[in-house]
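pasting for the record
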Amino acid sequence: MIFETTIWPHGAKWLAVLGLGIGPVGLAFYAWDHGTKHGDIRLLGISAYAAPLLSTLMLVVAGKAAATWSVATAALLIVGGAALASLDVLRAWGTRAQT
């Protein structure tokens, strides 16, 4: 706040702010709150790895980002990290399926 000038939206831009708050951002907070209260918190944390991966893939598909080796490496690291973090969840599901 010391180094930046505050710029407030004007006119119709307030509708965009309101639309984001009610729509995608508001829904995301509601879904996260519901997931933390009623879901498996470990699985929710693991699935959070998907957000940056999906947004990057959407940018590549839309032609707004290049599909480079660094993007592919990052995607593999994200998927590998999620797989590593979910080993105990997958084992628990496998145990439930066998009984």
